[in-house]
Amino acid sequence: MTTTTAAPARRRSSGWHGFGRLLTTETKVWMRDFASPFFGIVFPTIILLGVGFFIPGMRDPITDAPPDSVWFGLTPIATFLPTVLAMAVGTASLTVMPVTIATYREKGVLRRMSTTPMRPQGIVASHLIINMVTTLVGIALALVVAELAFGVPVPSQLGVVLLATALGLSSMFALGMLVAAVAPRPSSANAIAMSLYFPMLLLAGLWTPGPIMPDLLRDIGQFTPLGAAAQALTTGWFEAGFPTLQMVVMVVWTAVLLPLAIRLFRWS
Amino acid sequence: MADPVVEVTHLRKTYGDKVAVDDVSFTVQPGEIFGILGPNGAGKTTTVETLAGLRHADGGTVTVLGHDTQRDPAAVKDLLGVQLQEATLHDKITVGEVLHLFAGFYSRPADPGELLDLLDLTEHTDKQFGRLSGGQKQRLSIALALVGNPEVAILDELTTGLDPQARRSTWELVERVRATGVTILLVTHFMDEAERLCDRLVVIDAGRVVAEGTPAGLIDGLDDERTVVVRFGADDAGRARQRLDRLAAEHHDVVRVEELDGTPGEIAVSGTPRVLFAVVPALAEADLVPEDVRTVTRTLEDVFLAVTGRTYAPQEPEPELTTEGVRS
Q1: CA–CA separation, A214 vs B310, rounded Å?
Q2: Closest chain A residue to B85 measured between Cα atoms?
Q3: Does pLDDT of A8 surpass 80?
Q4: What's the CA gap between A100 and A106, in Å, rounded?
Q5: How far does the CA of residue B266 sit from the closest CA of chain A (Å)?
Q6: Distance in angstroms (rounded) separating the CA atoms of residues B328 and B312
């Protein structure tokens, strides 16, 4: 291990030297697992296509709403789109990322990282980035397919849609990070994540999207991160007005969960 | 003497009520292979993990290359390579990828290609971690500890779980690494490994240093007793026993005869270092020619017995350590 070229002086590392390579290597290795990219990217679109093509009447314009309501003339599958986007936001953040991090903790990868100049935070950050990008790709795919297959209308309030997406991402990734922080094993991370994921999908309207959601579900759902995201997206896409309550709910979830996750995070 | 590379002074570490490290002090000189030897659960791993700045000490000081690793663990990360016990990697990352990845964290990394050669891993560069054998994983683990071109490397239980062949090649490897100028801190519960590799060592038991020195010095420092075992055929065994018993009676200050449970015809004669000189003429005079003569070799296990009063049992159950106090 002799160095033939002039050796640069030893330096005190910032703790992030080599992060670019860490991110690209982690991305490459992560893509070798078929399931993670599949669920994060393709799953919401498959649900969209399945519901659109296999449930009768989803593509027929709504005529039983009052003619002056915003729902009149829309297709049911269009009103399902906010739910699909919320699902995209919830899938990688809750079902993929926590399990990955819990696995790294169990295998001692985080502890091994902390013996190097790279902070172990680097590996957490790289999976936050990987799963955020996955989610955005999943959203883009769902939008393109929704437009091509079902011709959904453009959002009536683009700003509200973008803000709702951003806050949905921040609150769900904060929740996923909390699961990653406290789950002792990959199996427990998966169990906790799934027991949050399915009720949240229910509250986000997977079974009763947009206008047909019962009031009770809507009232509960508006206080959950994913339910609030779906409702804010629905308002931004089809309705008028600003969904203040839902936006505040997502901000509060993020502000509570993220510091808690950082505080409770266990490295080994 | 040069400045010590590692200095541990009155280190103490507890987990709740359990005292993992009670009072451990030692210094490591540049270029040494320094051993930390003891049964499982003695506090060896806690000692080196605290030394590496991975755990908070409850008392005492630890310095590596002059840096206090408790106050400022980041100061030594570029200079210290650590091979942790039971740390694995993602099953799907390849040998080459992980070595290049880790090299990127350091300011003056070793050439990953040279390292792969040194550790006989070149042909496995593209193999995924999950498909490596135990010995290959262990060699990769050592490679990762060395990829930052460290001045000090901590190797924790690096041959546990390896077959005898792989253990011997790992030992040769450690010597090759030391030859490149790296100071090595070797944590092991194998007495033979410590005896074979270490220039100096401490024996740790129940969180305390119970012996310190060179392997040979520790063994020589035991009581001055030596043992010679002679074996006779069935015809001579009885006569030989009588002759040696008479010798013991004449020179009870030098010679003591013991029965051995093992092979028939074997007689053990113990005494001062001059016992061999007494046994040989006595047997020669009576024309008793032993079929076999051997002197009993003392090992570090005898040192452990002498300092603790217990037979060395490396597999004493490891107490469940909490992860409390681990930091990033």
Answers
A1: 73
A2: A108
A3: no
A4: 10
A5: 52
A6: 35
Give residue A129's pLDDT.
96
**Which of B77, B97, B326 has the CB atom closest to A268's CB atom?**
B326
Q: Tell me, yes or no, if A104 comes closer than 8 A to chain B by beta carbon.
A: yes
Pairing assessment for the beta strands B59-64 and B6-15 based on DSSP bridges: antiparallel
Q: Counting beta carbons within 10 angstroms of the beta carbon of residue B185, is it exposed (0 to 12), middle (13 to 18) or buried (19 or more)? A: buried
Q: In terms of CATH, what superfamily is B6-79+151-220?
A: P-loop containing nucleotide triphosphate hydrolases (3.40.50.300)
A10 CB-near residues (< 8 Å, 6+ apart): B78, B79, B107, B108
What torsion do the CA atoms of A2, B197, B160, B324 make, to the nearest 10 degrees? -80
Residues of A in contact with B84 (CB under 8 A): 108, 111-112, 115
pLDDT tens digits along A178-188: 999 999 999 99
Q: How many CB pairs under 8 A join A and B?
A: 114
B259: its two tokens:
């029965």
CB contact under 8 A, B326 and A22: no
Which residue type sits at B93?
I
Confirm or reject contact between B220 and chain A (CB < 8 A): no
Q: Does A14 touch chain B (CB under 8 A)?
A: no
Contacts of A268 (CB under 8 A, 6+ apart): A105, A108, A110, A111, B323, B326
The owner of tokens 């027991």 is A195
Window 137-196 of A: residues touching B by CB (8 A cutoff) are: none
Residue B102: which of A13, A116, A267 has the nearest Cβ?
Answer: A116
ipTM of the complex as predicted: 0.88
What distance in Å separates residue B146's CA from the closest CA in chain A?
Answer: 9
Q: In CATH, what is the architecture of B226-297?
A: 2-Layer Sandwich (3.30)
Q: Provide the shortest C-alpha distance from residue A256 to chain B (in Å).
A: 23
Q: Do A267 and B328 touch (CB under 8 A)?
A: yes
Residues of chain B with CATH 3.40.50.300: 6-79+151-220
Tens digits of pLDDT across chain B (328 residues): 678 999 999 999 999 889 999 999 999 999 999 999 999 889 999 999 999 999 999 999 999 999 999 999 999 999 999 998 877 899 999 999 999 999 999 999 999 998 998 888 999 999 999 999 988 998 899 999 999 999 999 999 988 878 888 888 889 989 988 998 999 999 999 999 999 999 999 999 999 999 999 999 998 888 777 888 888 888 888 888 888 888 888 887 777 777 666 677 888 888 888 888 888 888 898 898 888 888 887 888 888 888 888 888 776 444 444 444 444 4
- The burial of A158, by beta-carbon neighbours within 10 Å (0-12 exposed, 13-18 middle, 19 or more buried), is given as exposed
